[in-house]
Design brief:
Structural class: mainly alpha
Number of domains: 1
Strand content: under 5%
Shape: globular
Radius of gyration: 19 Å
Distance between the termini: 42 Å
Low-confidence stretches: 1-5, 203-211
Number of strands: 0
């Protein structure tokens, strides 16, 4: 083992996780509110347009032309919403960490300004990861870990399409620890989802039939929103930690980039 390897700073998985969760809790009403409006709105949109086929004949989503088109629209709409949620919460999380007042209008403005770039990058990464996961899973996982901080690179550094290479550079040498962080995060999110389902007496698949479809979509939208919000906060802290390790740049230096 070389001296460089020995001196390599630790990512600090638990620290990144705890800081991300702390940000989420500090600004719970705002951060969760942003995610809820978009997440539940998305599910209401899907239910209004495709509720019949989704609940009365779900097999048709994958066996008919109209079903496949509907599924494609749902996927695109999901990418749009997740892109906006992540962009806005990324900016809100920085101000929260620094103890600054919230500037929701600024966050939305920056998110919309970068929306086309973020949307196209989301399409590119989704397609690349899908192909990678189809090729024995591992290539897709590598792509995901390599491009995991693309959104912060765009909205904080204004990296544009260079965010792909920027994320690859920042994550290099730390993808195994990042994988460990993501595994822990998935477990945390699954526990949260399970507790919410149990508290409401509502199973994940119980409402796919009958008149409870709308309630299920609302419930699923709310749970997905919580997951999106927590995930975005964790990614923010991961990005900040990688910048600190690779470039010695602290949170206050990063904040000036988009203030």
């Amino acid at each position: 083992m070389s001296d460089i390897d020995i001196a390599k700073p630790s990512l600090g998985i638990l620290s990144v996780l705890s800081q991300g969760l702390s940000i989420f809790m500090k600004r719970l009403p705002l951060i969760l509110g942003i995610a809820m409006v978009l997440g539940i709105g998305l599910n209401l949109f899907n239910f209004a347009l495709f509720g019949d086929i989704m609940f009365s004949n779900p097999e048709a989503m994958f066996t008919t032309t109209s079903g496949l088109i509907s599924y494609g629209v749902i996927i695109l709409a999901s990418i749009v919403v997740s892109t906006l949620i992540t962009a806005v919460i990324t900016l809100a999380a920085y101000d929260t960490h620094l103890g600054r007042p919230m500037r929701l209008g600024t966050y939305v403005s920056v998110g919309l300004k970068n929306f086309i770039t973020l949307f196209l990058l989301s399409i590119i990464t989704t397609i690349a990861m899908s192909i990678g996961f189809a090729l024995l899973i591992v290539p897709g996982l590598i792509i995901y870990l390599m491009w995991i901080v693309v959104v912060p690179s765009v909205v904080v550094e204004h990296a544009g399409f260079g965010a792909l290479s920027r994320s690859r550079e920042l994550t290099k040498g730390y993808r195994w620890p990042i994988l460990g962080l993501m595994v822990i995060l998935i477990v945390v999110l699954l526990i949260i989802q399970t507790l919410l389902s149990a508290a409401l007496g509502f199973g994940f698949t119980a409402a796919f039939t009958g008149t409870s479809g709308l309630f299920f979509m609302l419930f699923q939208g709310a749970v997905s929103s919580i997951s999106y919000a927590i995930y975005a906060c964790i990614i923010v802290m991961l990005y900040a930690r990688l910048k600190e390790i690779k470039e010695g740049v602290g949170m206050s230096d990063l904040a000036d980039v988009f203030s």
